[in-house]
Amino acid sequence: MAGPPKVHSDGMTQPPQGPGPGEQSENQSWQPPGGAGPSFDKQQQPPPYQGTYGGQEPYGGQSPYGAQDPGWGMPAPGGPGHGQPHPGPALASRWRRLGAAIVDSLLLGVLYNILLVPFPDPVRFETAGSQVRYIWNGTGVLVNLLTIAFGFLYYWLMHARFGQTLGKMLLKTRVVREADGGAISSGTSAWRYGVQILLSLPCGIGSLLDALWILWDPRKQTLHDKVAHTVVVDAVPGRPDPYRNR
Asked: What are the angstrom distances between the C-alpha of 232 and each of 64, 96, 170, 246?
């Protein structure tokens, strides 16, 4: 409200100059009480939204699951959510991984027996008192090498192309990269199963440890998963499939 008009000696009045008590000039920036804090000019407008966050695409724009580092349920200290789990897909349960492995083993067992049909008696048994010896003939060695090669081709090619074996397709699980949830390469697929073969050499002890490792690992990884930097995730309908365009 403007102050009272000034009365001059000639009796004429003059309009008040400037704002009255408690009023604000149109061109003056507003200041909070006490003069503290930033001023906000009436003419100043916020910058327009550019469609990105901090100059980067939301979530990095690299992972098919919407996060550059899915985290696989592990906390992210100091990151988004301040220690909350990453928004990655769900890891496949241990029971489903076991079920997929059993299905693959049964399928390969049937195929191995079919492969053995043309090679009767690959192994001969000899007894000497209470001892039994296995004697491999040339055919037996060939069959053994063929079964190893067939198993390698099965796991290598299926994982490289689909991220899944037939057992994993049935149990709805899939192998992806640990770093970002993307499809694994052909080389990673070969190395992943190659590690399984190497672990099986010392009397099967390595294979047992490889399988048991998933019981206490926080990301439900086997040893060959850790070496190949892979994880096994859910492949239920609605989940992104990084192998779709292969």
From this structure: 15, 10, 14, 19
Would you say residue 232 has pLDDT above 70?
yes
The answer to which of 48-62, 98-112, 174-188, 194-208 has the lowest mean pLDDT is 48-62
Residue 115 pLDDT: 76
Under a CB-based contact definition with an 8 Å cutoff, are residues 135 and 160 in contact? Answer: no
Q: Please report the pLDDT score of residue 188 as a whole number.
A: 96
| End-to-end C-alpha distance for the chain, whole angstroms | 74
Structure token pair of residue 52: 């990105």
**Mean pLDDT of the region 143-171:** 92
- Give the number of residues written for the chain: 246
Take residue 42 and report the two structure tokens written for it: 């009436």
pLDDT at 120 over 70: no
- Closest C-alpha to 66, from 224, 180, 194: 180
Is the sign of the CA dihedral 12, 15, 16, 18 positive or negative? negative
Burial class of 9 by CB neighbour count within 10 A (0 to 12, 13 to 18, 19+): exposed
Instruction: Burial-class residue 175 by CB neighbours within 10 Å (0-12, 13-18, 19+).
Output: buried
Is there a contact between 242 and 202 (Cβ–Cβ < 8 Å)? no
Q: Which two tokens stand for residue 192?
A: 């992943």
Strands 173-177 and 123-128: unpaired
Beta bridge partners of 131: 128
